[in-house]
Amino acid sequence: xxxxxxxxxxxxxxxxxxxxxxxxxxxxxxxxxxxxxxxxxxxxxxxxxxxxxxxxxxxxxxxxxxxxxxxxxxxxxxxxxxxxxxxxxxxxxxxxxxxxxxxxxxxxxxxxxxxxxxxxxxxxxxxxxxxxxxxxxxxxxxxxxxxxxxxxxxxxxxxxxxxx
Length: 164
What we know:
This protein has helices at 13-65, 86-90; strands at 92-93, 101-102, 125-128, 146-149. By secondary structure, it is mainly alpha-helical. It has one domain. It has a two-stranded antiparallel ribbon with strand order 1-2. Strand 1 and strand 2 form a beta hairpin. The chain is elongated.
């Protein structure tokens, strides 16, 4: 039995303040790690989207070079690249009539760093045509040779996302 029959068991105000202080320090230390994890996840999504679209462009060009797609197809430029990103989704008629269309993408992926609201994924990307200069920021409209992010943000490694 305790010395005082009416003693109340519990924590003192000091003990509660110490516990809250420790919890707030732990939260403050972990917050930057959470932010880096979110950014890293977006960077992985961007890498994946760029790889997916660039592979689709290369596959269409390879089919054009190998004669699987007619050299006179309206969806493909005279250099063998799609005229728009949407061509990769809609598909291109194969050279043999009964074979139908070759589709290279199920959908156009969006740029995870795009800051546009209610956006169309086609508008997320900076497009460069085969005839455009390497450093050009304006698409010539002839065909789609490459894409890159429009974001001016800096990646974790110090590079700009638009340079990926």
